[in-house]
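Entry, Tuesday afternoon. Goal for today is a structural model of the target with fe (ii) ion bound, before we commit to ordering more compound. Inputs were pasted exactly as handed over by J.K., no edits. I checked the ligand SMILES twice against the vendor sheet because last time a stereocentre got dropped in transcription.
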Amino acid sequence: MKLVACGDFHAPHTVGWAFERVLDITKKFKPDIFLNLGDWADLSSATSHPSTDTHTQEEEYDECARQARMIRNVVGNAQKVWFLGNHEFRISKYCANVPSRIKTMLVWDKHPKFNAELHDWKVVPYEFGSPGLKKWGPVIASHGYRTGAFGCEREAVEAIGMAGWPSKAIYVRGHDHDLIPPEQCHRGTTKLPWWWCNPGTLGPLHPAYAKRETTAGWRHGVALIEYSRKALTVEVVDVGTTSGGRGRASYRLSIGH
Ligand SMILES: [Fe+2]
Ligand SMILES: [Fe+2]
């Protein structure tokens, strides 16, 4: 079984060349399952941070619809999963009481073009618990909820626990935009039989809204995962920082089962 995971597109601010490079890699890999790890739309209309954006919400969803079409052209009938991120969650929370006649401008599943593209996508809620996680064999995924290496590793152990402690499993998440190669979880010096990784973001690497945080570890990337009854292989590909440049690195984990 082959899965591709990437996310944090933050449309319409998605970095086009990085998105296309990830789609090229995806095309060669021929996944059975495509995971969009969330924060697909930036939804700056509902941000609590200062924003200088001048585009409309409709334009964000138009761009998401265009990206969904590009993904479909590459993965065809593969299973498609969208983990809602905190950006999507924010607008659904703020718009709960908005009159339905103007919801097409605000909520993605009321936007005709984007919603039509989503007809065969499974949409996973933003909720840190079983509803917000999905599991395929030794692979567990969600948007991600915590930040920082310590918080993310702790979240990995919690998520794998919620998935029933499958042995030699990996937790794949996005959210904090740092590209993390497959890392083994541990308690003190004891290594645990679980790993986690993050393919980074396909949005901008140094956006104005992130002034308060460090973006030093933010990278564009994609995770390529393959498992059978005998083995799990995870490759996190850092596709680089400039359109003309080459990919920076590829990190590979292979575990026998
Ligand atoms: Fe994000
Ligand atoms: Fe997020």
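Residues 57-75 form the longest helix (19 residues).
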